[in-house]
Structure formats: C-alpha cells, structure tokens
Amino acid sequence: MDTLELNYLKSLAKQFPNVASASTEIINLQAIMSLPKGTEHFLTDIHGEWEQFNHVMRNGSGSVRRKIDEKFGHTLSEKDKRALATLIYYPKEKLAIIEEEEEFLEDWYRISLHRLVSMLAHVSSKYTRSKVRKALPKDFAYVIEELITEKEELEDKEAYYNEIINTIIKIGSAPEFIEELCNLIQEMVVDHLHIVGDIYDRGKRPHMIMDTLIKYHSLDIQWGNHDVVWMGAAAGELACVASVIRNSARYGNLDTIEEGYGINLVPLATFALTTYKQTDCSRFAIKYDDDYNTRDLDLDMKMHKAITIMQFKLEGQLIKRHPEWHMEDRLLLDKIDFEKKTVCCYGKTYDMLDVDFPTVDPKDPYKLTEEEAMVMERLKLAFKHSEKLKKHVKFLYSKGSLYRVHNSNLLYHGCVPMDSEGNFVSLNLKDNEYKGKALYDALETMARKGFHSDDDEERLYGRDVLYYIWAGPVSPVFGKDKMATFERYFIADKETHKEKKNPYYDLYDNEDIVNSIFKDFDLDPEKSHIINGHVPVIAKKGETPVKCNGKLLVIDGGFAKAYQEQTGIAGYTLVGNSHGLFLVSHQPFVSKDEAVRTETDIVCERIPVELVNSRIRVADTDIGTELKERISQLERLLKAYHEGLIREK
Predict the structure, then answer these.
(1) Cβ proximity of 51 and 589 under 8 Å
(2) Residue 610: in which H helix or E strand, if any?
(3) d(CA 432, CA 434)
(4) Local mean pLDDT, 10-residue blocks, the chain (649 residues)
(5) Residue 546's pLDDT is what?
(6) Which of 44, 142, 251, 373 could disulfide-link 196, Cβ–Cβ 3.0 to 4.6 Å?
(7) What is the pLDDT of residue 512?
(8) H-helix or E-strand containing 273?
C-alpha cells in the first residue's frame, strides 16, 4: 500500500474509526444497491407555462395516479381515486373546499389520513429509512415515521395507528398534517427531475417556475437557448438584454420583466413614446392572450419597435467584433436602400414592409444614438442589479450545464451540430476549433466566465459567447442556420423567413450517426439514449418522438401554448423508473381552479419506450457505481485495520 492510499484511508478512518463502523456501512451500502432505482422525471421546453408545469410536477406525469391504482386497485371507486389524486396535487386548495362543504368533516379527515398514510408508505417503500427520514417535515417527522413504519412488536397495530390519527384530528392538526403528507407523496413519487432546457420566454411566469425549481429536492438543468439569452442579459450582454425585452414585448409578457423581476422599463417606455411618437409601428403587433391589458397596446408596440431596432444594431456590433463566427448574413441594416425601400439579402433585392426607422443613420446604421445608448445602459444595469434574476441565474449555473450524462442517458436541449454527411462541424473560439463534445465543453466554460470571471477580457468574451449560444449557426442549443428575426418583421416573402435546421435533425434516425455521438461522449451505443427537446414534435401529423429505434427521444411536444396548435398536444414528458422508460403525452391543462373544483386531471397517454425483464436496481445506476467505489474503499480500510496499518479507535 503506497503512502498516498494510506493517507486517504487514515482520512476515511476519521469517519469510520473501527472495524464495526466500517462493516456496518458496507452492509448498509450493499443493501441500498439492491433497492429499485428511483423514478426520474424529464421535462423540456416549458416556456413560462406555469400552470401546466405546476400540474405536471404535482402529478409526476401520471406517476401519482399510477401509484394510487397500484395501492388501492379495485378497493376504491374511480371517483374516490380522482378525489384522492386531486387532494395530493392541491392539498391546500382542496381542503378549503372540503372544510366548507363537508358535513361530516372528522370522518373525512379520518378516511383521508388513512389513505394518505397508506400511499406514503407505498411510495416510500423503495427508499432507505434514512432517506425517508431526511425528507420528513421537522414538525411532524416522528408521527409520520411511526405511521409509515411497521411495528411488529405491537399486537394491535390498527388500534395504535387509529389512536395516532384520532389524536391528530382531536388537537386540530389534521389540515396541516394532510398538507405535509401530500407534499411528501409528491416528493417520494419522483426521485430526481431533469429539465432539458427552455424554461423562459413565450409564457408569462418563468420566474414562478424558477422559484419552484429552486425548492425542488433533487434536479439538474440542461440550458436551452431561451435560458441562455436570459443568462446573457443578467450578465450585462446588451444584445441579450435587447433580445429578452423584444421577445417579452412580442408575446405581451413585459410584466415578467417588470413585476416578475422588478426591472424598470420606464426608460425604454419614455424613449419609445418620444422617439416613435409619429412612427408607423404596425409591423410590431403584440401576440397577447385574454389576460393582457389592451390599454397598453399602443405603448407596447412602440416599445417593441424601439427595442427591436436597438437589438439589430447591437447584434451588428457583436457580429463585427467576431468575424470568425461567420454571421455576416445577419448584417442587414446596412443593406437597406431607404429611398427605394428595399433590402438586399441572399443575393436578391426585396421590398421592405417598413423603413420608418427614426434612429437609424444609413451612413452608420449599427451605431446607437446617444439616447439609445443611455437607455441600453440603464436597462443593462437594471438587469444586472435585479436580485431575483441574479438568484435565478446563479441557480441555473449551479444546477445547470449545456449537457449531462446520467444513467447512460445523454441529455441536451438541441443537437450536436453536423454537416449533411454527419460529420461534426467546428466553431472557432479564441483561435481554437471545437466540435462535438469538445464544442459543448468549450462553450459552457466560456459561458460561465461570462457571468463569473473577474478577468475583464474573459468576462466580455464570455458574454459574447452567451449571445452566440442563443442565436449562432453552430450553437448546439440553437441548431439552425440563422435567426430570421429581421426577415419576419420586414420582408413579405416567407421563403426568407425559413430557418434551416441543422442536418442533425435529418440524420438522427440514422443509427450510425447517433452511435458516433454516443462514442464522442464516451457512452456505450448499445445501452444509451439521447434525450432532447427544442424542436416540437408534430404529433397531429403522426410524427413520433421516438427516433432511431428508441435510441433518441425528442420530448418537446408543445408545452407552450404558442406551439399547441402546431403540435396538436400540450407536450411530452418522459418517466424513467425501475421498469424502464415511458413517454407521456399530455393534453392541454385548463386551470388549477378547474382541476380542484371538478377533480379533473390532465388527460395523458403513457407509451412504453423500453421495458426491462427484471427491475433496474440502484446498483445499475450512476449512484450504484459511486456506492461500489465507496464499498471498495471501505473494504481496503477494513484490510488496513486487520493488518494493523491503521489502529482502531
């Protein structure tokens, strides 16, 4: 045994100071490895849709209802199962209705408590007692543990449990206790959550989604391009700030910025009212829904146009700073002929639908006016100093990454950029070429520096990289040849609006191509899966999310309302448990109030993707690999004790 290993074992001996303690830990770890693996829940492309997200989280994509069926079978009616499910999803709201309407409230408490205790015992049965104990709420930990733990020494367990429940009701703690049981059931049904990108934009409440994720017991996040642009804005990248505001204005979501994050948009509003007072803003219509205040429509359209023009200028400046990124086709302000009202792009000349740009100087079109520069500086500071946004973005950095390998699954939001032959294409970053996994790693490193680095040069370059990840043609989370924002606003010919997807999306049914991705990420092609979102699956046209004979799963099916007319459903989620992998397709969610009042759930279809003959155990997972290594270390420690190299205490 060399000195380095002996020193490590001496350090380990501080935690396990004798043979008995080390042996006990080995026995414990071996037992844990025999347990069924926990349930993993995969969501992607949430796009600010708080209510649908909240419900899917609470029902675990149907996992809660499946556990109710497992536990109670035919002993409960369909009506009672729906009522129990609704109570578990929304305990506070359901209790308020029950307490107002139920004539025999104590009886209802008693029945519900018994059912919830049975459910909690069922869903926690595949976890160690230690893990369950750590999850218990402090105020009720002892009582809950007593109720869900078998007491073989008691001759009349039923009387014992009944007395506990009767006492809970008698002292007026039933509502609180029910809430805690329901929350615990939700937590125990899903062991780990994966968010495969795009929490932000489109919907109105991404900040509420982030608040929920921060409190979640176990999760990871793979950044989507819509997340990265907010990360760039929080870092102070001006093109990202403008992009975030323009997106929010376009979808009638400026409240997300102002009320959700406390960012003051008055400087932009004041500038827009003055500068665009007599300007045609008809091309800048707002896509709003029923809860949008149309009183703000005229102002929002002016703000929409003002920030869009600033975005094009700022993007132009950034693109000129980085000719190595080959984004020259996005430099279009200088291709406008203001007299003829035309623009030259793609080798053709097109009529412009709008050239009423009061701040664009044809001689220097990418230069901000003095007023625009002042507005952008104030907006940048407002984004950087928003405490809530800073908290959320720090969380994205701490729990997130551009990709993740977990239990033989490769998770990323978009694609691995490649050419039409399936060869990985490269991107120049600081005079080095990166492609495949190396490109992901390099972009992530620089994105982190853009927010965290103390070095001015690294930080500024990293901020520009954040913008590139958002909209660059070789960005793995954008995955298109361009973002045709300019064309969609100003050119009638819809051919110019098309954003060509990376060839990855034409090739991901090719097993050789997918296997080459697995190999680049050091994964076994025979037992691995790729899980990604980003491009909605058009279910209503018969498109399947299962690609490449089940090796690749695209789980974006239209979570955002903006996509649901196109996809025909309200999103896919994925559930991985000890029995295999299951896709879940969801129908649109009406509202929480409707779900509580009528006890209706999201209609979802569970589709087996991969079933296993024998249950997957913890030993077969990444955690199992870590536990095996821990056991090996402890066994070496035991040997050191037995050989007298380390003395017991």
Answers:
(1) yes
(2) strand 604-611
(3) 7
(4) 86 94 94 92 90 87 90 92 92 92 91 92 87 87 82 67 88 92 93 94 92 95 97 97 96 93 97 95 88 85 97 98 96 96 94 96 97 97 97 97 95 96 96 97 97 95 97 96 96 94 94 96 94 76 83 79 65 86 79 79 75 90 94 94 90
(5) 87
(6) 44
(7) 95
(8) helix 266-275
Encoding tokens for residue 243?
A: 């992009």
Q: Do 286 and 250 touch, CB atoms closer than 8 A?
A: yes
Measure the CA–CA gap between 363 and 474, rounded to whole angstroms.
31
pLDDT value of residue 583: 85
H or E element: which one contains 410? strand 409-412
Place of tokens 């991705």: 517
Count, residues in the chain: 649
Rounded Cα–Cα distance for residues 315 and 309 (Å): 10
**Taking the CB of residue 419, how many other CB atoms lie within 10 A of it?**
12
pLDDT at 602: 64
Q: What is the pLDDT of residue 566?
A: 66
- Separation CA 39–CA 63 (nearest Å): 9
What tokens appear for 133 in the block?
């104990």
Strand duo 409-412 + 572-577: pairing: unpaired
Cα–Cα distances in angstroms (integers) from residue 104 to residues 78, 99, 111, 161, in the given order: 21, 9, 11, 21
Tell how far CA 89 is from the center of its chain: 20
CB atoms within 10 A of CB 45: 27
CA distance linking residue 195 with residue 57, whole number of Å:
11
Say which amino acid occupies 239: A
Q: Which ranges of 60-104 would DSSP assign to H, the alpha helix?
A: 63-72, 78-89, 91-101
* Dihedrals phi, psi of 210, to nearest 5 degrees: -65, -40
- Tokens found for residue 220: 């990871």
Using the CB atoms, write b or e for 5-18: b if 16+ within 10 Å: eeeebeebbeebee
What does pTM read for this prediction? 0.92
Alpha helices in 124-237 (DSSP H): 129-135, 141-148, 157-170, 174-189, 206-215, 225-235
437-440's contacts with Cβ under 8 Å and 24+ in sequence apart are: 437/403, 437/520, 437/521, 439/474, 439/476, 440/402, 440/403, 440/412, 440/416, 440/476
The whole-angstrom separation of Cα 631 and Cα 22 is 9
How far is 530 from 553, CA to CA, in rounded Å?
Answer: 6
- Cβ–Cβ < 8 Å for 333, 366: yes
Return the axis-axis angle of helices 157-170 and 105-123, rounded to nearest 10°: 130
- Whether 173 and 108 have beta carbons less than 8 Å apart is answered as no
